[in-house]
# Entry
Amino acid sequence: MENNSLKNRHLTTEEIFDYRNQKLTPAEMHRIEMHLQECSLCDEAMNGFSKMDDSMRTFLVMRDLRKKGRLKFTKRKYIFSLLDLNTLLLLLFIIGILIFLAVVFLKLI
Amino acid sequence: MIGVLFDRYSHLVYAVSYNYLKDEEDCKDAVLHIFENLGKDLNRYEIKNFSSWLHVVTKNYSLRQLSKRKETLPITNQSYLVEEEESGPEFNIHLPNLSKAMEQLNEEQKICIDLFYIKEQSYKEITEQTGFDLNQVKSYIQNGKRNLKLILLNKK
# Structure
């Protein structure tokens, strides 16, 4: 579990799952409970998660939701994320070939 | 900016709305609807505490959807909607005052407040030690904390 303070942030899905599945030490559980005492948003969210029966199913729903949200709210970032290193190298390679063919063609003329 | 907020808060909004709607697709729709309107709302309202504002927006949206679904409450009647809680006046805990105030709590609240805040035990450890169930522990801590605050504020 992330060990950074919960004073200036909210619980992550992973922390909530680890807490629900009792994967934490008593000290880590106490740290989360201290946050729940102060934060009504996380407290009610924790209640909501406890009503979802299948944690694997919930995990998949969260992943799907995050994907949808990224597509909807971070379009520009999504487009740039498609341009990963491999795609960039391929593009540079194609541009190089086109330039080479253009030079050869001009010399032949 | 909405993307960053979505990454930070969407799982919490989803889970809060699940308390009311109890349906995956409805909850996903709730999250997307709330974040779609976030840009407009952020410009329109002066928001002091974003997370408690978002909590209230989520609850109200879910309650409205629920009333539409059940068709028991007319849409115009919005008296059931929740308002954002005003945060109370700030107070500094003065230790001698705190121990005196602790004496005024009932026995169960005193035990739970001591174990949770002073001995830093988890809910589970407190249930094991006291024999109270989880809901009792949570409620003794919450009520004890509220009573302590009232006692300390009245002493000022």
Remarks:
- The mean pLDDT of chain A is 85.
- Chain A touches chain B at residues 9-13, 16, 22, 26-27, 29-30, 33, 37, 39-42, 44-49, 51-52, 61-62, 64-66, 68-70, 72-74, 77 (CB under 8 Å).
- Helices of chain A lie at 13-20, 26-38, 40-50, 55-73, 75-82, 85-108.
- Chain A has six helices and no strands.
